[in-house]
Structures are given as structure tokens and as C-alpha cells.
Amino acid sequence: MLFKLSLTGLKSRWRDYFVLFSGLMIAAGIFYMFQSMASNKDFLANNSTIAMTGIIFQLGSVLLGIITLVYILYANSFLMSMRQKDYAMFMMLGAKQAKIALLIFIETFTIGLFASLLGSAIGVGLTSIVNQLLTQQLDIQVTHFSPLNLKALLITLVFFTIMFLLAATINASSITRRPILTLLKANEMPTQARRKPIALLLEVIVGLISLAVGYYMMDNVMNLGLLALMIALVTIVLGTYLVFHSVMIFILAFLKHFDRLRLKKLNNFTLSQLSFRIQDYTKMLSMVAMIFALALGALTVGLGFRNEIPKMTEQFSTYDLLLNNAQDVDQNKIDSLHPTLDISYQMKEDEDTIYFNKEQFNKDPLIAIAFDATPKKVTYSGNQLADDEIKMDSLRTLLLPKQRDKEINMLAQEDFTQLNQQSSNLQVLQVKDFMAQKEEIESFAANNEKRNPSLSQDPFAMNQKFDIYTTYNGLFSGFEFMGFFLGIAFLTMLASCLMFKILSGAASDVARYEMLNKIGTRMSLLKKSIRREIAVLFLAPGILGAIHVLFGLKMFTSLLSEPYAGIWIPFLIFFILYLLYYLLTVWLYTDIVLKKKE
After folding, report:
1. Which is the most buried residue in 24, 89, 350, 426, by most CB within 10 A?
2. Do 318 and 368 contact (CB within 8 A), yes or no?
3. What is the three-state SS of 544-576?
4. Among 9-13, 24-28, 242-246, which range has the highest average pLDDT?
5. Nearest 5°: phi and psi at 18?
6. Half-sphere exposure of 152 toward its Cβ, with a 13 Å CA cutoff?
7. Cβ contacts of residue 459 below 8 Å, gap of 6+?
8. For the chain, how long is the longest CA-to-CA vector?
9. pTM value surpassing 0.85
């Protein structure tokens, strides 16, 4: 009977439960996506950067678990706010508290269990899609990553089962312990907030100073080290909290002093609603702003490492393509690359020595990398190579492994011609755009290795530019992969938490909007007020989190040559996701507070 009654309750409020159910599915799907990486030992062990930062995934998993718990609590708060009057009516009709508690338990756990199962299944599909996106569209090289991970699936189901058992127990206990009258009137008793002007102004000053100190520390983290990070963490968290607890309240109170603004349409009502909401949501908005900054920062830095790949490749390589024994290569195919530089150095060798024509290097100097404070490209003529063994090592790296231990002699044109040994060619090329032609260059480099088998026997061979590109791509793609996953997962969860926090208070606003409607307020003005109020609640933590990121990126100047390059990409991704959640929240909130009023 209770199960049938719970199904009837689910059916009667299917729209509200659908929002909760879909949100929980997203939560389960995201949790599974993250666990599929964090619990995959082969994946962590076979991707260089990720293997070195495996602990970050474990810490991220804990953080995601905490955010998921907060999300479930807010989602259930939304559910209870919509159903508490129904439960009160059951009590008034004589239902025992134990039966009501069991009813609430069944409803909550049933929704949670089905959402977890479907969410995990969806998570497998989403994981496959994201994996394809990252490996194909972003050219990230990730190995041993399977969308279906039984261990991750088990962890997800166990975690969400425990969470929903806990949530169901809390829901049942909180409802049955409240008096019936409290349940019936809960939405009509908002908390009153009284703030002394002096205390408010003091909090504003402390909040702004805290943020300024935190931003200064992040800007000087290279000079002050760990101390700057510790101070920045404390001051930015404190400043973020005080921004919502005082600065926003102060700004809203200040705006109310302008009669032209305050008395226009429903502005006074909207400002009053915001003053109450922001003060009531201080902890939530502060958490959203901080984790928003971490999520956006993770995605920004992750994509920033991708921008470093071609830069690092160019910095540590000399030629776009190197061909050993180039006399065996079809030069017509080489011409298809349209090289901007094409040089063939003639060489002859015996058992102990390799001979080069010095005049060729005098005419076309060798491009090499000199390591001082930073690596830089230099050129060496034939005379310089002949006089300096260290410079000669730059030429030695272009040779085959079996040739590198031989002595190298630079001979004059006449002496080189008189040698009886067979001549071979060392050909070096540069193209207009390596990144645009890297697939063709990869093919030539692979053929060069086939023609010279000794190259495949040297695990440390890094003379081809494509090999250097592959190394850095594999190194930095781990950070990019991790940043993308963390950023999207955290943003989705936090936006969902904020959405359900707003929706959980919607029931208490029904009477206010009903009163405004009865006194003749146009429906268009009511909807406009709702859009503005929710826009502020979404934008405030989003903007503050973005500001945190803009200052925080300065900490990565030692790792990223241009940390702000392409920053519009992650900001655009976040804006689109954030906008979708905003529109969904506005639609749901409007449907609750203005239901059947049109």
C-alpha cells in the first residue's frame, strides 16, 4: 500500500520529480565519468603526466564526492519543500509518523536508486563521447582508457546507494519530527535578517582588502613561494564569503537610495528579494564561486598546456624533417611538402670516421640549439664545427645511432672529393607550417626509420621533430585531459547545486507572487523580475570566480609562456553551460511561483 501511495505521489508531481531525477542522473553520470579515470590503474600508469599526478585524481575524487553529497542534499531539500504540505495532510488524516517516514524513505530511495542506475549507464556513454572528443578532436594521445569500467561502476552505485540511504533517512527524520502546523506554514516564515550599518561597512572593507591581498599574493607567488599560496588561500576564501555576506548587500542597499531606479516597475521588489536571497545563500554562493574558479581554472590551464605543445616542439627542435641516407628517397615526393628549406649535406665514412664537406656548412650553416638560461636556436658554420667538439655534438645528434660514436672530420671541398668512400646524403628540411603538415611529415619520418633500422633500436632517439612533438603532446595532454574532465564535471555539479538551492526556496515565494498578481501586476513584469533575480544569483558567483581565475593564472607563468592565450575558449564553454542551467532554473522557478496564474 505504501509503495502504491509513493508511486501515486511520484505521478502527481512528475514534473518536479523529473527535474530531480534528471539532475541526479547527471550527477551519477559525471561521478562515473570521473571514477572511470581515477580508478583505472592502467590508464594512470600508461599516461606519463597523469601517472605523475595520480594523487590529484584521488583528491579530485574526494572533492567530487563532497560536491555530489552537497548536490544530493540540496536536491532533496527541493523535493521536501514541494512535498511537505502533502505529508502534513497525511498526518492530519491520521497517518502514523512511522508510516510517513517509511513513505518518504521509499520515495527518496526509489528515485535515487533508479537515477543512479540510469545515470551510470548514461555515464558510460558520456565517457565514450568525451574520450572520442579529447582523443580525436583535440589530438590528445591517451592509452588504456576504456569507457566501461566495472570498478568505477561499482564505486558509483555503492556511493550513490549510501548517499540516498543517508538522504532518505534524513528526509524521513526531519519531516516526522516537525509539528504539523510547522510543515503547513514553513513556506510562510522566512528568516528575518537585521544588519547594523557599521558592522556591514566593516565587513565590506575587510572583504575587499582580503581579496586585494589574495590577488597580490597570487601575482607574486614566484617570489614568495608557498607562503603566498597559503595566504592567498585564506584571504580569497574569506574575501569571497564577505563579498556575498556584505559587499553585495551593501551594493543592493545603496541602489535602493535612488528613487528613480527603486520606484521603477518592480525594481524595489526585485532588490528586496535579492537582498534576502544573497544573505540567505551566502555559503552556497561562496562555495559556487570558489569551485567555479577551480573548475574554470582547471579547464583554462589544461587548454593552456595544449597551446604549449607546438611552442615547446619548436623550441627544442631544429629541422621539421631529417632524412638519413637521403639518396634513397624519392625527391619528387619530398617536393610535395613544398619545403621552405631543403639542404643535403654530403658525407663519407669508414669504420672509424665520418667526413663532411666543410664548404657546404659554410654556405648553409647547421641550425642547432644552444642551452644557456633558456634554449635558443643558433647556427654553426663548417669552420665553427671543425674547431669546437661541443658544437660538433649538435651535428652528431642528426646521425644514425651506429654513426654517433665515430670521429667527425670537416674537410675542404678538394680533400672531400678525393676520398674513395661512397658518398651519402644527410638531408634536412623545414616547411611553412609544421602543425598543418605534421601527418605528412610523420609518414616521411616513419619511412626514414624503416630505411634505417638502427633508428628503431635507439629508444632515446629524438632527432625528428615529430618525435619531439609526440613526446610533449603525450606529456601535456595528460594535464589537458584532466583539466577538461575536472572543469566540466565541477561546473555541472555546482550549477546543479545552485539551481536546486534556488528552486528549494521557490515554494515560499508563491504567496508573494500571488499577491502581486492579485493587485494587478502584469505577468510580463513578474517574469522579468524573476529573470533578473535569478540572473544576479547566477552571475555574481560566476563573475567573481572568473576574476579569481584571471588573477590565479599569473601563478602559472613559470609553466605556461602565455597563460592567457586562447582564454576565450574555456570562458565560452563555461558561459554556454552556465546559460543552459540559468534558462532551466528560470523556467522551473517561473512554473512553480506563477503556476496557473496566466
Report:
1. 24
2. yes
3. HHHHHHHHHHHHHCCCCCCCCCCCHHHHHHHHH
4. 242-246
5. -65, -40
6. 28
7. none
8. 114
9. no
